[in-house]
Structure formats: structure tokens, C-alpha cells
């Protein structure tokens, strides 16, 4: 299915958050996508969904993936309960303008620190002295996060002994640590969808670095104290069994209530001082897509799709 009028698609910030599926087959059904399992068949609202998380036992057809991609729905392959990110499909990135702005800010030391300070201010609503080093900002952040854990422990009654778990020994972790991991995994998916929807790189982080999802961790941290931390502690109040599922459900509800998608888009635009790209400038795939521009040494791009050679070359 090719969408010729992008006005028909919901804006990313207005989409639903995520859908996690396991032990089912996802296939094209007429002009829609459906998940089929032993429990029956459900339709997937791919045009208004930000990210589809595929857990164990899922299979997906080529036609379904194409439809999801055309609708701008990011696909993740992950482990049970959303753990262990394995791979992702590509969102419908239309322009490289935002990515170039991110790369410039990442590579310039002064701009890099400006973004770090801005993220801290977004997260804790306090100004940061420009004279502070990155290490000092990280220390301030650590204190605030410990306070957030302690606060949620007090109001929920869940014992908190610190963040401690080993991915290879999942069952040995406490209920609250398993809940936090499950909640954070959902947050990573939602925030990565936002990053890629705007054409930014998940890998070019400013506080986190060295991983292919470094920037995802940066952006997710902006909202953890509002969403994943309270959602996880609320889930851990009940029995240990099923704590991961309850944490995911809490995150989904809090993400809707706290308008996570809208806030993610706004934060990304603010960090890199991006002007909103008019919908008409979003490129379509296939024959409708205009040729790419070429870099001009005078700083002005030149049109692509032309032969700039001469008879003498």
C-alpha cells in the first residue's frame, strides 16, 4: 500500500505508544495488518502506532512489514517481556537536516555541553551553571535519581536496595528490579521511535556514548522519573508473578497520560533548535521522491539528478 497523501497519516506526537506481541503471526489483511494466534485475530492500527515490539514466537510477512514501514511504524525484535533488544526496522525518515544538526552538536565540544545542560534542565527543571563539567553534571543527576527511587519506595511501600540485576540471571533479580527493566525497555522503544521519526541517530549520544542506542538512553532518561520509575514501583506492589507485564501496562498508561510522544518530539526539537519541517517537504519513497541534493563547496546545495560533467572531462 502506497500512501500518496501524507496528510492522511497521524503526526508522530499524536500516535499511540507501543504494542507488544508474542507467539503469533503478523500478516497483511486486505489494506490492514493483523496478528493471528491461537486466541484469535486482532487488527493492528499501524497508521496510528509508534512502535510494534515483536517478542518470542512471532513471525511477520514481507507484505506486513512493508505496510508498517509505509505507515511510519517502527518495528522492534526483542526478547520475552520486551527484554533484550535484538534489532529494529527503519522508520520513514524524510530528511537528513535534523541528523546533520545532531552531528554538528555532538562533534562541537561547546555545543555538546550545551545539549547536556539542556537535557538536565528538561529533566529536573533547574538551571545548570555553564562552568560545571560533564562529570559534575553527572554527579548532580545521580543524586536526583537516587532521590526519585527513594521517594517511590516510600509512597509505594516497596523495599528499595538499589539497582541490581544481571541480564543472564533474570529470575534471580528482585521484583522491583525486573519491573524497572521491563518498564525501561518499553520506554526505550517509544523514545527510539520518536528519535528515528524525526530523522535523528539513536547512536549519537551526549551523556551516554559508545552504544548503538546511546541517544535513546539519553532521551529516555528525561522521562523515567515521570513514567518508568513510578510505573515499576506500582507494579512491584503486588505479587512477584507477572510483574513485568504489569510494569509494561503501567508504562503504556502513564505514557498516554503524561503525553510521552508529544514531549519526546518537543524535547528533540528544543535540544537541536529545529524548525518544524512542513509536511509537504517530507519525502515519499519510489518514483515520487525527488532526487537528493549534492553538497556545494560554497555552502549552498545544488540539485541532484543532473550530470555536472562536461565534454572535456
Write a structural description.
This protein is of the alpha/beta class. The protein has two domains: 7-88, CRISPR-associated endonuclease Cas1, N-terminal domain (Ribosomal Protein L15, Chain: K, domain 2), CATH 3.100.10; 97-271, Up-down Bundle (Four Helix Bundle (Hemerythrin (Met), subunit A)), CATH 1.20.120. Helix content is 40%, strand content 13%. Strands 1-5-7-8 form a four-stranded mixed β-sheet, with helices on both faces. Strands 4-3-2-6 form a four-stranded mixed β-sheet. Strand 2 and strand 3 (32-37) form a beta hairpin. Helix 5 (175-197) crosses helix 6. The radius of gyration is 21 Å and the shape is flat. It starts with 15 loop residues before the first strand and ends in a 42-residue tail after the last helix.
